[in-house]
Amino acid sequence: MRVLYFHQHFTTPEGSTGTRSFEVSKRLLAAGHQVTMICGAGALAKTGLSGPFKKGRREGMVDGIRVIEFELPYSNHDDFLRRSWTFVRFAVRSVILAMRRDYDVVFATSTPLTAALPGIAARWLRGKPFVFEVRDLWPELPRAMGVIRNPLVLWAMSVLEYVAYHSAAACIALSPGIAEGIIRRGISERLVSIIPNGCDLDLFKPDITEAVPEIPGVDPKAFVAAFAGAHGIANGLGAVLNAASVLRSRGRRDIAFVFIGDGKEKPGLVERARSENLENCFFAGPMPKKALARFLSRRANLGLMILSNIPAFYYGTSPNKFFDYLASGLPVLVNYPGWIAEMVSSAGIGAAVPVNDPTAFADAIEEMADSGGALMEKKIRARQLAEREFVREMLARQCVSVLEGVCLEEASQARSQQVSEQGHAAEPSN
């Protein structure tokens, strides 16, 4: 099976963002398939290619994956128009490749939603099967966040979403809410598989022995509550600063908040922490996955799952950072309701606090910081949950099975059609 894989934000573990597509590609290779990955040049990504771009692209083999990288820089600091233009340019160039390359199936993963366009083109213009992996519900999320208000743009995105789902032979949803959103658009439940993000158990593990990255100013004995991820509007990280303010007023100088990552909102967060003298807040840049694994596994005491209070997030996201925390054996504090909060509570691996309640947020952290043996039990249960339900290799195999099933179904239908045509040709004419 030859897979043409489209992921604009693809990265290897050398980068500082999610590696799901890399792991799925490796599993496809292990199953004997071929993978060509089409991607852009994300600020936090490392595609594994290092040569110069020629005519806006570069190409090469990375761990057995043929990678085609377009010279289309992307950053969370870009404004909406610039990001949109980058998405459109990537989609156009991807469609051209989908029309010219030899392959058996297209696998496209969002975001952005425009990543589906080469799959749609392959399905309707070349008769190739298309599998769509949906990481966020668009336009539901940007509409709920207020990021996009133009009714014409929202309508166009809704149409694209509908066409993408109905062009796909199968859809992979990363959370229960995403699956429900796909089904609401008229897709049969049997065509939708829920395959959440997974845990890199060999990378994030409690017994890592390499040197731990140091965050300047953090007391070596401090209880560290870490947030590792994008610092954007959706993340609502002001809630952490609110809790930090409460703990500072209580004199809890032994509790430190560490923010790892980057994003459009980061400068404002840093300035607010400075102006309010929140000396318990520390900011670090993005870390490569390997360095992040060492910090979370060896230095952090608690992982923070923070999002803005938007109902569409409750069941419609599958954040990479949550699974990194589990793999690292970290208890988790989540500040919004939904499937992640329900899992944290039911598995006994941390705390779910009410939205917009800095006192409850601070109370939960203070309780865990003072809990001693109870905190260690949460750590053990977090790692056990990762090993039991979210092994990356197991989930990647499920993705491979979906792709293989689609190709087998396509081949079966082609054989049936051929037999039918042969039968009609053999019928005597009157």
Break the fold down into its secondary structure elements and pairings:
Elements: E1 2-6, H1 20-30, E2 34-42, E3 57-62, E4 65-74, H2 80-100, E5 105-109, H3 117-126, E6 130-134, H4 140-145, H5 151-167, E7 170-173, H6 176-184, E8 192-194, E9 223-228, H7 238-249, E10 255-260, H8 266-275, E11 281-284, H9 289-298, E12 302-305, H10 311-316, H11 320-327, E13 332-334, H12 339-347, E14 350-352, H13 358-369, H14 373-389, H15 392-426
Parallel strand pairs: 1-2, 1-5, 2-4, 5-6, 6-7, 7-8, 9-10, 9-12, 10-11, 12-13, 13-14
Antiparallel strand pairs: 3-4
Reading side by side through the largest sheet, how are the strands ordered?
Answer: 3-4-2-1-5-6-7-8
Number of domains: 2
Structural class: alpha/beta
Low-confidence stretches: none
Quickly give the CATH architecture of the largest domain.
3-Layer(aba) Sandwich
